[in-house]
Write a structure and sequence with these properties.
CATH superfamily of one domain: P-loop containing nucleotide triphosphate hydrolases
CATH architecture of one domain: 3-Layer(aba) Sandwich
Strand order of the largest sheet: 5-6-7-3-8-9
Number of helices: 7
Structural class: alpha/beta
Shape: globular
Mean pLDDT: 92
CATH topology of one domain: Rossmann fold
Radius of gyration: 17 Å
Helix content: 25-40%
Length: 225
């Protein structure tokens, strides 16, 4: 069966001196393998919070998220870590590459929590980097790369363990317009080829417009954009 992502009545509130402040007020979302979804909304609307709950980086106040019927909040902490490593890939605005590791080593990092970086894993990493045009940069450090190149490495790292869901949080926020277009197109192409569910939150209307399904987080709920 194809992968299914299901978000059911997710709410999230944060405590403050004046009481709880609601951010998400009952978010619902269903997506299946191969879908690409963009989510827009003003700063502070909860876009990143929603993404982190889908990826089991944060817990909802109520409701649940399911990937192929599994609610990661019901797993132990060790099981949650394995779930994130094996099922979810993350691409952040800041690439979070390890500065002391080469491009190839950075892409291989997700394998260390599983079988390790053997010949099969290295071959897969090389294939991903070739796909994004970085074969000539395998042994370079992040400091030797442009911003667009670093973000391409981050996309490869997110796909290294062949996740079912790829989550992108403002992936082009630090890039110039032309590079942002390249990264956006690249993510969409690779996600489609890999058959993953791609969910991208962004302030960029240009990037959001590239997605077949566009949603807006408004007053704590998702609506068609």
């Amino acid at each position: 069966m194809p992968t299914e992502l299901r978000v059911e009545q997710i709410t999230k509130s944060y405590p403050s001196a004046d009481g709880n402040v609601p951010i998400l007020r009952g978010v619902d979302l269903v997506a299946t393998a191969g879908e690409a979804i963009s989510i827009v909304g003003p700063s502070g609307s909860g876009k990143s919070t929603l993404l982190y709950m889908i990826g089991a980086l944060e817990s909802p106040t109520s409701g649940r998220t399911l990937i192929d019927g599994i609610d990661p909040q019901q797993l132990s902490l060790d099981e949650q870590s394995r779930f994130r490593n094996q099922v979810v890939g993350f691409v952040f605005q800041d690439h979070h590459l390890l500065p002391q590791c080469t491009v190839l080593e950075n892409v291989l990092i997700p394998t260390l929590a599983r079988t390790g970086a053997g010949p099969t894993e290295e071959a897969h990493a090389r294939q991903l980097l070739d796909r994004v045009g970085l074969t000539h940069r395998l042994n370079h450090l992040p400091s030797q790369l442009s911003g667009g190149e670093r973000q391409r490495v981050a996309v490869c790292r997110a796909l290294m363990n062949q996740p079912k869901v790829l989550l992108a949080d403002e992936p082009t926020g630090n890039l110039d317009r032309r590079t942002a277009e390249t990264i956006g197109d690249l993510m969409l192409e690779i996600a489609r080829e890999a058959g993953v569910i791609l969910v991208c939150v962004t302030h960029s209307s240009d990037l959001a417009a590239r997605f077949a399904r566009r949603l807006e987080l408004r007053d704590g709920k998702l609506e068609p954009s």
